[in-house]
Amino acid sequence: MQSFLQQAVFGIQLGSLYALIAIGYTLVYGVLRLINFAHGDVFMVGAFVCYYACTRWLPFRDLSADPSAATSNIALAALVLVMAMCVCAALGVLIERFAYRPLRNGLGVADAHFWGLVAALPFALSMGKLTQVVPLAAWLAIGVIFGYTLRPVVRWIARRSVRTTSRLNALITAIGVSFVLEYGGLLVVGADPNFVPNVVPEKVYQLPGGVRIGTAQLAILAVALLLMAILRYIVVYTRRGKAMRAIAHDIEAAKLMGIDTDRVISFTFALGGALAGAGGALVAALTHVKITPLFGLLPGIKAFVAAVLGGPGSIPGAVLGGLLMGVAEAFVAGSQYSAFRDAIAFCILIVLLLVRPAGLLGRHVAEKV
Amino acid sequence: MLWLLGRVGGVALLAACLMGISVWLTNNIETYYFLVLIQCGIAAVLAVSLNLINGITGQFSIGHAGFYAVGAYVGASWTMLWRPQLADNWPWLATGNLSGDILNLLIALVLGSLAAALTGVVVGTPSLRLRGDYLAILTLGFGEVIRVVLLNIDAVGGARGLAGIPTLVSSGNLAAFWVFGLLIAVTTLTRNLMRSTRGLTWLAVREDEVASDAMGVDTTRVKVTAFVVGSGFAGAAGVLYAHFFTGISPDIFGMDVSIMITTMVVLAGTGSVTGAIIAGMTLTALPEALRFLKDYKEYRMVLFSTALIVMMLTRPQGILGHAELGFGSFVRLANRFRRKERGSAA
After folding, report:
1. Residue B238's pLDDT band (boundaries 50, 70, 90)?
2. Phi, psi at residue A304, to the nearest 5°?
3. Residue B158: closest CA among chain A residues belongs to which residue?
4. Which residue of A has its CA nearest to B143?
5. Interchain CB distance below 8 Å, B314 and A184
């Protein structure tokens, strides 16, 4: 019984993190009917922002040497959370602007130059760090050349093709973005695993029933709940939220009603990115997992499964799905089959998609022919 | 009767030529280039086999590495675990001599592709009821489940994998023969299929699933068949990989391999067989040309994924689309140039 409760507590902690990421999937799916495969990597970037902030950018003091540093460190930790959220919100907007908007509106000059710069990045990085003059100049030069040649070349290739947009193209684009972030991250920070040091004091409380719960777990739960409350407020009670719901209902009609859809979609990506960034920072700082540029993939896919479990497009569904996933994983991890903890997500997904493809709280939409 | 004799004779002649070329290649090419060549061949087989599912039948599977892994593991299990037990009673199963090696490789190929095809049935039957992006995520999930299961079977080495698999493929300098023979077999099957009545139902499912269902095509059956055949060929490629590179572990069949195979099919144009072959070979050989860059492996992934994004944003059907590259297309191209010249002269 005791270990059962203990696993449940662990599961709820894990589940609230999955829920934070899953909300980002579900928001984007709601407005664009797109699986934002790169969302898990936005989460990874949040974890890295936290790592760099805790080790280099911010003046954290060593707790073991100076116990009185606790208060200032906690204040700085709150700042780290905000930083990670801001960076990831910006990243979400960037991804939307350069990868998903051209899917809807076509590849413009700015988009071509952006992807030219991305393609030129590794060349520059093989010369040295971007803070030096020569690699930076080379990057910009190669990038601009790529950008100028990209459009004529693809236009020549595409000269007789009719632009078709399907959801599959969007998914492939999303997979591409995800890989750019992962392997670009490997190029920039390397493959060595990083750990965030202990910056906030940790205490373990004994609950009745022999269950132990740490400050880290409480903090994760509290922050997750707070962010979800704010999100609910934004979506339900503000004008922007109303516009988001309108777009989710019918994007063409929303356009006709005078809603600037591109802007609202950007805002949606910013919201999702901020939540994923917060999740990444919480995981990195409080659970001390090893972070590498590839580590966002698995949590991302599990959170996606959570979003599908709850019904894509439904925010309460994402929270419910995230919690269910977390608890299920915690129980598998605590049992004798712990080696299969990463497979349980897919087993749940497979069973669910066969039994109830619309998810637990989702609506089934019949296909029009 | 004469017709059948001609066919068999033709295949035998082709095989003999290929064997000769293979022996010549092994003796006359540097080992490094030969390794790259074999890798290119295996990648092309994988691309063509996935093209059967994604291109010809219009589904979207992104977990192909799972079937590749099943083939590699079952094939290696035959040579390393099951064969030695049987060889005590049947001495003709011994390896080390040419005929024994070929026989064992053939058995491994059959077992490996059957096992992969069987996995294809298990995975495909439930998941092909779904469409589009759900199917994609589900196949990705199944690929990952296969990897995790392999990771937890102690008999095949768990996370360490199997090492020291006998190099049956290279026995008698026939490596290129096996790999490119398999490639020719998959390609021929696809081509013949696309010209047959059965293949037309596959294409119909790709063009419009609802309409073909209404016209009496058993769409689920078609999709599962395509999935199973594609998986079986990926399994055969896995067997060849295991018996050429001698070591396999769950790591080398990860999600990035699945995505890489998908990239090959998508970049070339889903549905184009020649495109899949060319893309498979190019995407395997190109990173070797990029070795002068530091961290060229990461570079490769960044470049390819950027290419994938730009392709999706400008020409979603891939470079070739559904078109095939053959002698005919060169003739057409030459004619166009000639006409242009004449036009400018007049």
Report:
1. very high
2. -60, -45
3. A339
4. A346
5. no
